[in-house]
């Protein structure tokens, strides 16, 4: 009779190898993170106009939990880089990224932020992934608001599924050190 009382509970499917309660806590924290992201828009050109349309009432990014745009890096979760980034501006983008608290995510919106776009010149950074790690790329020149919403929903999925201790892993620290970030 006492053997039945002491019986342990098996972890649900997909949570093997970690404690039942730790797995459920990761799910709860991920859900909270995904539905309360505060984006920091770093817009320099036409992609910024499309982002403004995304925030307007017709598309309404606020329905995804991004009600509050943060123009302070220390209070933001998602850095949304939109438009052409000149090489002189690259240290500023990197500094803004470094001022953000962990966990932080980055969206490269549009062809210019993703790959330099049509500006294959000496003065334009050929993709922000040369200075900071990018989580989601939104294609287009400029991308439609629907594409920006799709990119934001991808960030929500990343935030929801990311384990709390991922940012302390050696792989993540190696990624940051490859960008010169300690």
From TrEMBL:
UniProt keyword terms in alphabetical order: 4Fe-4S, Cell membrane, Iron, Iron-sulfur, Membrane, Metal-binding, NAD, Oxidoreductase, Quinone, Translocase, Transport
Gene Ontology terms, MF aspect: NADH dehydrogenase (quinone) (non-electrogenic) activity
Task: Check the record and name the InterPro entries matching this protein.
Answer: NADH_UbQ_OxRdtase-like_20kDa (IPR006137), NADH_UQ_OxRdtase_20Kd_su (IPR006138)
At the top level of its lineage, which domain of life is listed? Bacteria
Q: Which Pfam families match?
A: Oxidored_q6
Q: Which reaction does it catalyse?
A: a quinone + NADH + 5 H(+)(in) = a quinol + NAD(+) + 4 H(+)(out)
Which cofactor does the UniProt annotation name? [4Fe-4S] cluster
Per UniProt, the cofactor note for this protein states: Binds 1 [4Fe-4S] cluster.
- Recorded protein name is NADH-quinone oxidoreductase subunit B
| Source organism of this protein record | Flectobacillus roseus
Q: Which gene encodes it?
A: nuoB
């Amino acid at each position: 009779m006492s053997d039945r009382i002491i019986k342990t509970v098996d972890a649900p499917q997909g949570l093997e190898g970690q404690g039942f309660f730790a797995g459920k806590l990761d799910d709860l924290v991920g859900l909270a993170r995904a539905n309360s992201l505060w984006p920091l828009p770093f817009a320099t050109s036409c992609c910024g106009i499309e982002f403004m349309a995304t925030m307007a009432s017709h598309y309404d990014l606020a329905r995804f939990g991004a009600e509050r745009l943060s123009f302070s890096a220390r209070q933001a979760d998602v850095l949304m880089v939109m438009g052409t980034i000149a090489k002189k501006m690259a240290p500023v983008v990197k500094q803004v990224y470094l001022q953000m608290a962990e966990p932080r995510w980055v969206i490269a919106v549009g062809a210019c932020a993703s790959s330099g776009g049509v500006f294959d010149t000496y003065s334009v950074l050929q993709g922000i992934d040369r200075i900071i790690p990018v989580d989601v790329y939104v294609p287009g020149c400029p991308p439609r608001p629907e594409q920006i919403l799709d990119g934001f929903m991808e960030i929500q999925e990343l935030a929801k599924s990311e384990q709390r201790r991922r940012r302390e892993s050696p792989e993540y620290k190696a990624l940051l050190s490859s960008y010169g970030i300690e």
